[in-house]
Amino acid sequence: MAQRRVYLTILTLLASLVTLPTSAQTPNFGQMELATGFDRAAATAMGTTGGSIRLGDLAQQLSQGRVPTACQVTNLHTSESPDHLLILHPDIETLQLVINNGGKTAVLMLQGPDGQIHCSVPGERFNEDAVLQDLDWSGGNYYLWVAAEKAGQQYRLSARE
Questions:
Q1: How much is the pTM?
Q2: Are 120 and 68 in contact (CB under 8 A)?
């Protein structure tokens, strides 16, 4: 009976490590904290593309098999650790995240406080290579990854209300 409890404890520990990979990782390019009415000029961060994991594979790992169609990308790569941490407090009713990657293909993947994965769509305007919007922007931590075809491309992440 005691041996079975030990096995169950070990399995529980291993399961928690698999399902919470982002909580123990430091973002590559820092964090951004936003609240309702934030200054748009201050809601910008820079980063550089790169990494060895395909975005679709990372989405598969993080979502435990429930990968949204927009995230099923096999030709774009990112790093396993998040590029940015977005902290919202409190809820923000309308928010848009935009990646400007100099006109090159990019996808922004987000894991929200509920653990769900979301991916961007291509932007339709100048300086909008990827856009993520129309989510339930509840207060909490959002982990962000930027995926691109080539490593070493500098990009700008912007938040708009």
A1: 0.83
A2: no
